């Protein structure tokens, strides 16, 4: 097993994952091709975990409870990046505009020009 740069434990874990995946695949195919069991479900295999997840996603906003932690998370993931990016653009453009107006940046050295 040292040829693959994996330890013995990692190889056992990988083999167990492969076996588990094959077992679940066989079980799914058995359920999918059974003509009697899933005829009432329009030919689809009913997965209760998937159904719970989809039901949760459909009703997620109804069960949302605003907390201070949610507010902080929203500020750090939405508001703060937008404000910092806006400030960055504003300072860069102001600096470039000042250089153009004072003549420090010649027309031929400008990045976007008409001619």
TrEMBL record:
Pfam families: NDUF_B4
GO CC annotations, alphabetized: mitochondrial inner membrane
Record membrane topology: Single-pass membrane protein
Chief place where the protein resides: mitochondrion
Compartments it resides in: Mitochondrion inner membrane
Keyword S-adenosyl-L-methionine recorded: no
TM stretches of this protein: 71-90
Taxonomic superkingdom: Eukaryota
Alphabetical keyword list: Electron transport, Membrane, Mitochondrion, Mitochondrion inner membrane, Respiratory chain, Transmembrane, Transmembrane helix, Transport
Family: Belongs to the complex I NDUFB4 subunit family.
PANTHER family named among the record's database cross-references: NADH DEHYDROGENASE [UBIQUINONE] 1 BETA SUBCOMPLEX SUBUNIT 4 (PTHR15469:SF0), NADH-UBIQUINONE OXIDOREDUCTASE B15 SUBUNIT (PTHR15469)
Full protein name: NADH dehydrogenase [ubiquinone] 1 beta subcomplex subunit 4
